[in-house]
Structure prediction request, 114 residues.
Amino acid sequence: MLTSGDVVDLDLGLPQGREAGFHHPAVVVSAQRILNAEPSVAYVVPLTSTVRGLHAEVTIDPDDYNGLGTRSAAQCQHVRSVSTGRIASTRGNLDAATLAQIRETIAIMLDTRS
Prediction:
């Protein structure tokens, strides 16, 4: 079962334009109460090892828990829903503070902060 903050490997398919595509690690950002129902779709934020320092990115350093091998950027501007069937494996899980920072960045981008 998926957990919020899981770092997963998945196939995003053929990209169009500047969107993320192909095989990527990504962070599961769906709410845990939704994931507990074992949905067929989950919200993810792709990760990249190309850290650009954009306001829409959250930098993540590798540690013993997240399964990343290199410093990465969560590309919050590319948040998307994917079939859980696209998820090949789980590498690890992000700490609560980093997951909260990613969710806050998404909320700012979508203007949903209260």
